[in-house]
Design a protein that fits this description.
Cytochrome Bc1 Complex, Chain A, domain 1, 6-stranded mixed β-sheet, globular
């Protein structure tokens, strides 16, 4: 595909301007005017490997949201006096082992923190980002780098640059005690994940003595003994301009932006990038045996771990192809074939490159009961040796190169995904051209290159891992006995805000969907509609067939979507059919949701006709194969064994039961006994039913509407469509007559997951929909919401805190709405967290000064979430399916602009304040006070059979 290679080097949307500011900070600028937004990020080349096992890099990332000497304070001079003493006390705490003295120091720190909070404006940084057009504010710490990023509206580029550079000049570590408790919650949350401790143990064994061996979040012992002085030294060492990068992708003018960035980000301290001595990993010596414990009986798990390559290694591209010979998106790899032929229950390859080392591994699930680890390993080695011996066709080799190039191009299509690539590439020390040149390197690869890297890396020196059934002892970080740190200035503004407000802002109106112009709409036949949008960035097409029936109507659809990738047609075997798709650079996948069944095709427009012919043959002539059902049965069995090991999964099942009763998706689904009785013909009969229901087709590509429609009508079985759709399918919500706590007991979990459900009568007034959105954002929408501040920010009572009011589609307005709140917290904080939530619900604080910022948040979301070209028509069709004739966001904003605190209060008093709260709680009863829990309602203990069929 020479055209694609030239596209990657010449298209305007792929041009990245690399520039250095006067302080040596690197800037990457990528103009793309396809969406009315900008993605902005700061990348710091410092991560967990630079503070191994301490967690400093991670909790420093948390503290970067607390403000500076100018942001987040009403009087920094007075606050600093207390913060300096707090820092000294933390250093003393880290040097103290005596429990009584530690408790005394912690109490002093708490008292000082409460006093310092009198000067704090909590969450001012987050509020400023939102006030000036920002959404999706977030950060992340990896082993190699730390990211700070968000999306924002283009007219606020000056404010964004000012705020985000200011944050890096002099960050202040305020509210540290409460934020450290939040990190404790995060640590405990990871500990409740089924395999997290096993993965930690395995990572340590694989990477030792490299710093990658230690968890990013740090050890429990180090988290108990933080040193603010070490965190300050970490900042001074690594947060220098030459060790950082600024990434912007989106709707801006490069020449206009550069002076803005120079005047703001050049304030960041100069400094030399820190020198790092890379720790070399020793080779494995023969077959090094390791076992890990996972609480999943009957299921065997095996892994083979080899030494991989770091991100900049010259063998990386060839190794990617070698791995795709084992696993690929069309399921034609050698390990894929073991799964398809049911020679093992499952097998996959992992190839991950970090900056200083790489992971190369194979994960294998032997068949239940009788297949031994040795037998499964022998099969796997046979597939590896096929690559080492060159036992693969040239057609397969070329098709995998084409697949790799398609994946490269697809990652660069839109602002968000391209910015993610830019951040990763910068963090690896590469230039943008290095990344674009990788397509040329793929083209230049020979079979011999792939054979050589397979021989080089898949050696007889490897780590052999097997699973034992069991659990590791948990280290639970308990709730400290602290007084809540509640700032008094939650609605104040710092003097810094006045500076931002003086910056001129160009007035830009939000960009709304135009149902008539944004997508061409063509009726192909009764009940069949084609939506066409143009792809202006490459020659890759996507075609989605959206049939209007989902899992809530046909309960075996999830099994159908899992089964179809394993079958072929009456005239072609699986290998031939999938091989032909792969040679064209095309993929065919399936999915099902509550209200639709999706057939998704991707490929190159130059091969559209041939791809449609293959897909049409599959839709008309898919051939049942009962042998392939064994894979579906095995997957269902693994689900049965693992589902109840995850408290998040159990909480989701319990909430479904509380909201929908016997209509819960987990009670209407096929049981395991029913799955075992399935036949291939039964599932393909269901597929025929699906194809008879009304269908929307969504094509995004370079072909004309007429040509795309002609090929689709020629090859796809649209004549089968004859039944109108019932979608969106809405289930009845449960009502209750008294407060109730549905409780599911789970041993050995540190965190409790709490859902609070409220039934809300059908909304009466037309304006209730927009105001419900405003209320939901005010109450539990983001970091500035009441729930977040009162429960997490001020009291550290929970890690996950959110709420959502969900009403039915417009054309189902007679149906009720639901309000669901969620908390995830340590069990010893659960009652406290629930009491605060109850107070918020039944006596909601009035904060009229926040209403404008909440309205601005909604405006930002509407503007910044304008869809990509591939999702435009899907969004339009989705709105139409719900009964809208135009973009509802336009009407919403017009109504919301007129709203005041009085409107929020009216909605709250009519629909929320006096309504019953029904709780769904998953936790460890041995660690909680059940008598206190009964204050929130009659406790109904739930068993597995009550929530899962």
């Amino acid at each position: 595909m020479d055209s694609m290679r030239s596209l990657l080097s010449t298209s305007d949307f792929l041009q990245v301007r690399e520039h250095k500011l006067s302080n040596d900070l690197t800037v990457w600028l990528n103009e793309d005017h396809s969406q009315p937004k900008i993605f902005g990020a700061v990348v710091v080349k410092a991560g967990a490997k630079d503070s191994p096992n301490t967690g400093i890099a991670h909790y420093f990332e948390h503290m970067m949201f607390k403000g500076t000497d100018k942001i987040g304070t009403i009087d920094y001079e007075s606050e600093k006096v207390l913060l300096d003493i707090i820092a000294e006390k933390y250093d003393a705490l880290a040097d103290t082992e005596d429990p009584k003295m530690r408790a005394h120091l912690q109490q002093i720190i708490n008292d000082l923190s409460v006093r310092a909070a009198e000067y704090v404006i909590p969450n001012e940084f987050d509020r400023l980002i939102s006030r000036f057009g920002g959404t999706k504010l977030n950060a992340g710490t990896s082993y190699d780098y730390t990211l700070y990023f968000n999306t924002f509206s283009p007219q606020y580029i000056s404010q964004w640059a000012e705020i985000n550079s200011e944050r890096l000049v002099n960050p202040v570590f305020r509210l540290f005690q409460s934020e450290l408790e939040t990190v404790y919650e995060e640590k405990n949350m990871y500990g409740d994940t089924m395999a997290s401790v096993a993965i930690e143990k395995l990572t340590e064994r694989y990477f030792y003595p490299h710093p990658y061996a230690y968890p990013i979040i740090g050890s429990a012992e180090n988290l108990k003994n933080p040193r603010l002085s070490e965190m300050r030294r970490f900042f001074e060492k690594y947060y220098v301009a030459s060790n950082m990068g600024l990434i912007l992708s989106g709707d801006f003018d490069t020449e206009e932006v550069l002076p803005i960035l120079e005047s703001t980000f050049s304030r960041i301290r100069k400094g030399k990038p820190p020198h790092r001595d890379i720790v070399a990993l020793p080779p494995f010596e023969g077959r090094e045996k390791v076992s890990v414990r996972i609480p999943m009986p009957f299921v065997k798990i095996m892994a083979l771990g080899f030494r991989g390559v770091p991100a900049n290694h010259p063998d990386q591209v060839a190794l990617n192809i070698a791995v795709s010979l084992l696993n690929n998106s069309n399921g034609t790899g050698f390990l894929d074939k073991l799964t398809v032929d049911h020679k093992v229950m499952g097998a996959m390859a992992v190839n991950q490159s970090m900056n200083e080392a790489g992971i190369l591994g194979l994960l294998v699930f032997p068949k239940f009961f009788f297949q031994t680890y040795a037998a499964a390993e022998k099969l796997v080695w046979k597939q590896i040796n096929r690559i080492k011996e060159g036992d693969f066709s040239d057609e397969m080799f070329q098709s995998l190169k084409l697949e790799q190039k398609r994946e490269y191009a697809s990652k660069l299509e839109d602002i968000n995904s391209r910015a993610e690539v830019m951040m990763r590439i910068f963090s690896q020390g590469k230039s943008w051209q290095d990344y674009l040149d990788e397509v040329t390197r793929i083209d230049a690869l020979s079979r011999e290159d792939v054979i050589e890297v397979a021989k080089k890396y898949f050696t007889e020196n490897y780590m052999y891992v097997t699973k034992k059934t069991g659990r590791y002892p948990k280290t639970i970080l308990p709730k400290p006995d602290y007084s809540p740190i509640i700032p008094k200035n939650s609605d104040a503004s710092s003097a810094y805000v006045e500076r931002l407000e003086k910056i001129p802002v160009q007035e830009l109106k939000p960009h709304f969907l135009d149902f008539e112009k944004d997508a061409e709409v063509v009726s192909l036949r009764p009940l069949v509609t084609l939506y066409k949008t143009h792809n202006s960035v490459n020659d890759i097409f996507s075609l989605t067939l959206s049939y209007g029936v989902g899992q809530l109507e046909l309960r075996d659809l999830d099994k159908l979507s899992a089964y179809l990738p394993f079958v072929a047609t009456e005239s072609m075997s699986f290998e031939v059919f999938r091989g032909k798709l792969q040679e064209l650079g095309s993929t065919l996948t399936f999915d099902s949701t509550d209200s639709e069944f999706l057939v998704v095709v991707n490929g190159f427009d130059g091969h559209f006709t041939q791809t449609m012919a293959l897909v049409g043959d599959f839709l008309r002539h898919a051939k049942p194969d009962d042998k392939k059902l064994r894979q579906i049965v095995d997957e269902a069995k693994v689900t049965e064994k693992s589902l109840f090991n995850s408290s998040e999964n159990v909480a989701d099942m319990l909430l479904e039961k509380v909201k929908f009763g016997e209509q819960s998706r987990y009670l209407t689904k096929l049981s395991f006994a029913e799955i075992k009785k399935l036949k291939g013909k039964m599932l393909l009969d269901t597929f025929s039913k699906v194809r008879s229901v009304a269908c929307n087709l969504h094509y995004c590509g370079t072909l004309s509407t007429e040509e795309a429609a002609r090929q689709i009508k020629l090859h796809l079985p649209l004549e089968e469509v004859s039944i109108p759709s019932n979608s969106p399918y809405i289930r009845d919500l449960m009502t209750y007559d008294k407060p109730t706590v549905f409780f599911m007991d789970m041993e050995d979990v540190a965190q409790s997951i709490i859902y609070a459900y409220m039934y809300i009568d059908p909304l009466k007034a037309k304006e209730d929909r927009p105001v419900s959105r405003l209320f939901s954002a005010y109450f539990g929408g983001d970091m500035s919401s009441l729930m977040f501040q009162e429960i997490r920010e001020f009291r550290s009572f929970a890690y996950q805190v959110n709420a959502r009011l969900k009403h039915p589609p417009l054309n189902r307005s007679e149906k009720p709405a639901s309000f669901v709140m969620k908390l995830a917290t340590q069990t010893d904080k659960m009652i406290d967290a629930m009491e605060v939530l109850e107070n918020l619900v039944h006596d909601m604080p009035e904060r009229p000064e926040r209403v404008e910022s909440v309205k601005q948040t909604i405006r930002n979301w509407v503007n910044n979430e304008y869809p990509t070209s591939r999702s435009l028509s899907l969004k339009i069709a989705g709105f139409r399916r719900e009964g809208y004739e135009s973009d509802p966001n336009k009407d919403y904003l017009e109504v919301i602009d007129r709203m005041t605190m009085e409107d929020i209060l009216r909605f709250y008093k009519e629909n929320i304040q006096d309504h019953l709260m029904i709780y769904a709680i998953v936790g460890n009863s041995k660690s909680m006070d059940m008598e206190k829990l009964s204050k929130f309602g009659q406790i109904v203990k739930v068993t597995r059979k009550d929530i899962y069929k």
